[in-house]
Amino acid sequence: MPETFAPHTLTLCALAARVLGWRPGEFWGATPAELAACLADPSAAAAAPLGRAELDRLMENEADGQH
Fold it and tell me: Most buried pick, 20, 22, 38, 51, via CB within 10 A?
């Protein structure tokens, strides 16, 4: 989310309740990134599968402690 999260929390909490069926505790327990992922367009996420080179790079970063 490009802007700060705080000013939009009530609107986002209501949206999560209506669209995702989340109760307030589920909303407040989620990170902004998790909320964005749940509200994202599913067709956009299915663009291309993760390739072997990218998987290897991610695994290497994880092993090195780079998140």
Answer: 22
CA pair distance 27, 11, nearest whole angstrom: 11
The token pair at 1 is 């989310």
Residue 12 in contact with residue 27, Cβ under 8 Å? Answer: yes
Continuous H helices in the chain? 9-15, 24-29, 32-39, 42-45, 52-63
Distances (CA, A) of 1 to 7, 45, 54, 55, 65: 12, 16, 24, 25, 25
Q: What is the spatial distance between Cα 18 and Cα 9, in angstroms, rounded to a whole number?
A: 14
pTM value is 0.55
Contact 35, 12 (CB under 8 A): yes
